[in-house]
Amino acid sequence: MTGTALLVMDIQVGIVSRIDEPDYLPRLARAVEAARAAGVPVVYVVLGFRPGHPEISARNKSFGALRPGAFTPEDPGAAVHPDLAPREGDTVVTKKRISAFAGSDLDLVLRGSGIEHLVLTGIATSGVVLSTVRQAADLDYRLTVLSDGCADADPEVHRVLTGKVFPRQAEVTTGEEWLTTLK
């Protein structure tokens, strides 16, 4: 699948712990393994800050409320969840805001690799996935969202986004349906 990459966004210990969906990680792991087997690059996008959070303004409602040391190199909660840990050949991109593109070199990495089609997964549907769909569409990427590869603390918000909002800018499918396109 030349030109396609699977984005695995914010699957970090401190974020996964907020989702109460026991089948989520195994389902996402199947998509990651299938992508690797098909030669589709897997790009992990993680939230990360320097010690002392100099990147965060007190005016930022989302990040200004983080506890000191959160999502810094010393924070165990900043690690990618061990059930989905990156492997050799995977790319890890660190972002500084909600969108995968904000404060990161993701666009450079993707364009440098000839990627034009993004398959999006992550936590939260109403956070990183929504912001990344919007920005990636504005950057002219072709988009697919794996509805069951995304999770949100609010199931109704997840339903509305994947059923009504994302289809305006992306193909929305399930992980199992996407896997059939890899064969």
From TrEMBL:
Q: Which Pfam families match?
A: Isochorismatase
Which species is this UniProt entry from? Answer: Kitasatospora arboriphila
UniProt keyword annotations, A-Z:
Hydrolase
InterPro entries linked:
Isochorismatase-like_dom, Isochorismatase-like_hydrls, Isochorismatase-like_sf
On whether Transcription regulation is a keyword of this UniProt record, the answer is: no
This one is known as Cysteine hydrolase
Which sequence ranges form a coiled-coil region, renumbered to this chain? Answer: none
One MF term in the entry's GO annotations: hydrolase activity
Q: Does the keyword Hydrolase apply?
A: yes
